[in-house]
Amino acid sequence: MEERRYPLRERRPLGEWWKNHILPQQDVERANVACLDDPLNLCDAMHLEDASKWEAAMQEEYASLMANGTWELVPLPKDRKSVGCKWVFRTKRDASGHIVRHNARLVAKGYSQVEGVDFNETFAPVAKFTTIKCMLGIGSAMDLEIHQMDVKTAFLNGELEEDIYMDQPQGFV
Amino acid sequence: MYKLKKSLYRLKQSLRAWYQRIDMFFTHEGFSRSQADHLLYVKQAGEYLLIVIIYVDDVIILASNVSILKWLKSRLEDEFEMSDLGGLHYCLGVEFERDRANRTITMSQNKYIEEVLKRFNMEECKPIGTPLDVNSKLLKFTEEEFQGIQKEMQGIPYKAAVRSLCMPWWAHGRILHSR
Which value does ipTM take for this structure? Predict the structure, then answer.
């Protein structure tokens, strides 16, 4: 009998590996968002069992925006276009995966903004990873206290230099 | 129609507006901004040392003693709406484990990687040395075949999968210091 030099199990060509991992159609869109269980839009959120929690989260966000003096109600000038907005829903979890809170955010559809009209300059305030690693190394060596904080409404804290007009949010017109 | 007076999430300029605000805060508090990384602030006077790293809305604080740490936290809380997450444990998808006795910090992304695998239905996958089929022949597709494959591929979230891999690389290695 001829000696087999490879295992007996069925071999699947590697080039088709992804066929084992095709997501059901309804999950494909969801794979692109941060968490599988979060509602994709307002309509979704209002039909889930957590609807009341999402609604409370929206109310809280809206109240915080109002208290912050984020906008004033004005008519749109004829020569300007408005920026759209939508609600984004996220469940916040801790390191062990337990739900900490429901979070609703009103976000502008910034991708429709036109450079030179709606904005002039952009900047991403992200520290380099090497900076973080390096500083943690120093902190560890010097036995420093290392804590973290999170700014709840970071983006709502900046003053705008440009004039931007936005649609009123769904559910709060 | 709303005319915006303050920035809002996902506006093109909101990140910049936020940075200007927090930069002003740390400058006023007497911190100096690093030339190497503008998101790194240091304040040193006499006995104490404060180091602050900003990652969008996450703030990591290193302090030489507890009272100076408390002072900075209360200053930040006066100025912004903050939540205090205590000691550094989980930040930016990375778990931090500190061993103060041995002066080491271990970073791991197990949780993040498991989440990604789960999201793409690949929990059962096996690691492989050469992630490529070495025996496959490369062929040229006809226009018709190509369109068929393109259609088939549309349902597969490649972009999202690749994007979620952009994070894990950075925690490789270990921050270690021994006396």
Answer: 0.74
